[in-house]
């Protein structure tokens, strides 16, 4: 059985390909290289000794997706990462997000629908909860009206998968990520943000390495202990392993329902200032930062209730914030050599 990983040369995708190969899965990657680079294939091979099959395919091209399924007729499992994911960009260019994030999903599901039985794992996000009322956030927390077209594509994607499950042999798991950070311990793969990083940790490491002048901390008067926002930062390798656990659950038919949902986080919240302090500790470097105005659209607090992931999925995050930050710093130093 071949497993398709879309966006498999991206940040979370590449780490998941490594863990799939480590567990003996035969992987084919689709990536359009719009937010990744072909050299990531070499990084994967350097870790696992195996280079996955690779197809540079635009998933918005229905015929191209159909041709893929004709060529790889033995694909019966898909882990779907490929999507546009910049919240701010989605506000400025919503149609790019609806075409890419929804169109591609529809074509992939059409490719599976003809098969008697198949497995689909969807990269979703805690962003679907908006600012949840209660912490930690469970999978039953209400879905809030999306704060951005990006978040809306995740909500719509989940609904599409639910509808298709009722009339097909597609069994799905929706994984709602909290904040993925870090890099593989080998520093052969990691996060490669294009242009100015939107996310906190790559901006921290680029500031520490001298690529950026100064980190701007977006607000320090939130209703939190130190006034800065709280998030659940999960090591990308832990996140990748959760995908393998989810795939095995589907392949072994251990899933209780045709669509299951799991929050993937550590269950621990860390503030922006706590992340900065932890980074300074693990890197031995002072970080140049200043407090500025809040970023529109940011929520105050989000961290996961991990009971369902731990006790039903059978997965638990093992790596700490310090380990994640140390791996991110090791990666930044390596790629800037
Ligand atoms: C974290 C905290 C910022 C940058 C987003 C998406 C989510 C997922 C992860 C795709 C916030 C603060 C950040 C900076 C800062 N993406 N910050 N200075 O916004 O929680 O989540 O990325 O799946 O769906 O919504 O992550 O890393 O951007 O921000 O102070 O330069 O760091 O205000 O409090 P976020 P983030």
TrEMBL record:
Residues 4-325 form the NAD(P)-binding domain. It catalyses: UDP-alpha-D-glucose = UDP-alpha-D-galactose. Coiled coil: none annotated. One of its GO terms (molecular function) is UDP-glucose 4-epimerase activity. Its EC number is 5.1.3.2. Pathway: Carbohydrate metabolism; galactose metabolism. Keywords: Carbohydrate metabolism, Isomerase, NAD. It comes from the Bacteria. It is an enzyme of class 5 (isomerase). Its cofactor is NAD(+). InterPro entries: NAD(P)-bd_dom, NAD(P)-bd_dom_sf, UDP_G4E. Homodimer. Belongs to the NAD(P)-dependent epimerase/dehydratase family. PANTHER family: UDP-GLUCOSE 4-EPIMERASE. This is UDP-glucose 4-epimerase. It comes from Flavobacterium suzhouense. The gene is galE.
């Amino acid at each position: 059985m071949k497993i398709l990983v879309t966006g498999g040369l991206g940040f979370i995708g590449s780490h998941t390909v490594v863990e799939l190969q480590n567990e003996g899965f035969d992987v084919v990657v689709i990536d359009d290289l719009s937010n990744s680079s072909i050299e990531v294939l070499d990084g994967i091979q350097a870790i696992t000794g195996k280079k996955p099959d690779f197809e540079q395919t635009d998933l918005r091209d229905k015929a191209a997706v159909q041709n893929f399924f004709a060529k790889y007729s033995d694909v019966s499992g898909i882990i779907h990462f490929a999507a546009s994911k910049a919240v701010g960009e989605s506000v400025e260019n919503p149609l790019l997000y609806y075409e890419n994030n929804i169109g591609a999903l529809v074509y992939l599901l059409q490719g599976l629908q003809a098969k008697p039985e198949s497995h689909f794992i969807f990269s979703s996000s805690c962003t679907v909860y908006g600012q949840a009322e209660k912490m930690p956030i469970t999978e039953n927390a209400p879905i809030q009206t999306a704060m951005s077209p990006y978040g809306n594509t995740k909500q719509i994607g989940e609904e599409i998968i639910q509808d298709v499950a009722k009339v097909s042999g597609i069994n799905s798991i929706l994984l709602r990520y909290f904040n993925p950070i870090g890099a593989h311990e080998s520093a052969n793969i990691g996060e490669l943000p294009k242009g100015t990083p939107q996310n906190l940790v790559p901006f921290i490491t680029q500031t520490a390495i001298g690529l950026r002048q100064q980190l701007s901390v977006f607000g320090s008067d939130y209703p939190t202990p130190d006034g800065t926002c709280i998030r659940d930062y999960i090591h990308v390798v832990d996140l990748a392993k959760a995908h393998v656990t989810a795939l095995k659950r589907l392949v072994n038919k251990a899933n209780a329902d045709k669509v299951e949902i799991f929050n993937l986080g550590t269950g621990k919240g860390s503030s922006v200032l706590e992340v900065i302090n932890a980074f300074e500790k693990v890197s031995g470097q002072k970080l140049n930062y200043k407090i500025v105005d809040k970023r529109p659209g940011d929520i105050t607090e989000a961290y996961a209730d991990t009971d369902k992931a731990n006790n039903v999925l059978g997965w638990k995050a093992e790596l700490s914030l310090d380990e994640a930050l140390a791996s991110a710093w090791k990666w930044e130093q390596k790629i800037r050599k």
